[in-house]
Amino acid sequence: MTLEINSLTKIFGTAKALDAVTFSVPTGSLVGVIGRSGAGKSTLLRAINRLSDATSGQILFNGADVSAYKAADLLRWRARAAMVFQQFNLAGRLDVMTNVLLGRLSHVSTLRAALNLYSETDRAIATAALDLVDMADYAAQRAESLSGGQQQRVAIARALAQEPELILADEPVASLDPRNTRIVMDTLQRLNREFGITILVNLHSIDLARHYCDRLIGLQGGRMFFDGTAAQLTDGVVRDLYGMESGEAGVENNPLSAVQPVANMEMTK
Amino acid sequence: MAGIRTVLLDRARGLPPEHQALIHPGWRRHLVPFGVVFALVALFVFALDRFGFTFARIFGGIEQLGWIIYFMVPPNAEGQFLFFARALGETVAIALLGTLIGAILAFPLSLLAARNVMTNRIVQFMSRRTFDAVRGIDTLIWALIYVNVVGLGPFAGVLAIASSDMAGFAKIFSEAMEATEGKASEGVRSTGGRRSAEIAFGLLPQVMPVLISQVLYFFESNTRSATIIGIVGAGGIGLYLSDTIRTGEWQQVSMLILMILVVVSVIDVISTRLRFAIIGKRG
Fold first, then answer.
1. How does pLDDT run across B35-81, given as a tens digit for each residue?
2. Least confident of A238-252, B120-134, B184-198
3. Pick from B227, B115, B254: which is nearest to B171 by CA?
4. Is B28 on the interface with A (CB under 8 A)?
């Protein structure tokens, strides 16, 4: 019962965004994906969801070849591998409840969805998902009227309404303040623990990755650079992963780095 | 571990009444959308009935149309090709001059109508309303007026297109300016730049691609309008078109239509290339 990534490669023009990335994740893990901007973190998650396909390589989920799915199977897979985005990707002009109900689209015909004729089960699931992220009071509000942290919680509710087996969170907290960062990360952790959903989360912050994730995968220039536990991720590895000069190694002890070490690194350059 | 569905459905049963209402929204919410759709369908049917819309007339018309198309083949200028070509050139010239004059006049005016440029609300509001009024008069009506003012010929056509486009451009330009983000302007202001510098360096670079692509689009669509205004005597190929249709010289009509189609598609291709060249691929 695993997600297996086999030699996944993605080529944009002449650049290799992913270069023979290979790893496997047992069901129920919470895996952090770290690396510099442009290391291929987003490309990896988007390739797993099949939002944009890899050039070559294979994605297996519980033994089934996800990378070969077409048509209805592909749509169904996307519902099973829910995405959470940095910019939330909600339909801003639609209300919160409708946004979460979009998570039920794979169970409903587009016509029924457009006419707002969701079944009571669908509505119950969406409402409970909203309640779980503590956003049910906002159900009738337009999504774009909410703060960033609230929008991200709605996006997580939408993902949960998909009844996902996998959640792919692409920099889910990069646009959020420290408090909302905690709320969102705690929520993801809770979904992982309570429902056993496998989660892959891209993070800028090494501290967050260390604190929340069972396992960390480091990408550098599209290649696997590190795969191990938080304890195995030493300062030396971090320095190499982010390509820092040795003089910048004190980053992790700097209180400013607690939230955004990458931004801090750029400040010291 | 219990499935997501089971846990969520259990949780849903325990929700407080105000959240339960989300699950059972009731049929009343469909009343308004249903009413609107019903009213639109009723209006549609009523209008068709009032205009004497019957299937008999459509099928009768189709037969007539078939005959006209039959007479049109093959297209033939019947010795008039050079006259047609010259008139078509005039039409393109009318469209080009009219569009350019309209755009040039519209640019300063649009500054008056953009809320984030013109801080005087009264001036801003009045200029916006003036554009609306001028725009409300169609190019064809302007052409009819100018034919009486400056006489028959292409000059009236140029003025007609320039007049209606000036107002249209001014409105589109000012709206594009209002849709810009204030960040770049704020950056210029923070350096001690004058207000004129804010507009020139903060605002205009953002809107230029929109303005240019709008001008090119208008040129395309004006080439089509310019064929029409020829019919009322404002120069160009329209006169030949209306004359040959009136006298039933269908082969010449089809030749004229073919020539217009070719020129319009050539302009379409050229302006698309130009647009990409000026504003980059992802405009």
1. 999 999 999 999 998 988 888 888 888 888 989 899 888 888 888 89
2. A238-252
3. B115
4. no
The closest of A96, A87, A88, A97 to A142, measured between CA atoms, is A96
What residue type is assigned to position A77 of the chain?
A: W
Nearest neighbour of A136 by CB, restricted to B9, B19, B25: B19
**Interface touch B22/A121, C-beta < 8 Å:** no
Spatial distance between the Cα atoms of B204 and B198, rounded to a whole number of angstroms: 9
User: What ranges do the domains of chain B cover?
Assistant: 2-53, 81-279
Question: In chain B, which residues have their Cβ closer than 8 Å to the Cβ of A125?
Answer: 5, 8-9, 12
Identify the pLDDT of residue A91. 92
Question: Å from B17 to nearest chain A CA?
Answer: 12
**Four-CA torsion B117, B120, B124, B130, nearest 10 degrees:** -140
A183 Cα distance to chain centroid: 15
Q: Which CATH number fits domain B81-279: 3.30.70.120, 3.40.1280.10, 3.40.605.10, 1.10.3720.10?
A: 1.10.3720.10
Q: How much is the pLDDT for A263?
A: 40
Residue A6, classed as helix, strand or coil, is: strand
Give me A261's structure tokens: 């070490």
Kindly state the tokens that stand for A76.
């169904």
Dihedral of CA B197/B202/B207/B208: which sign?
positive
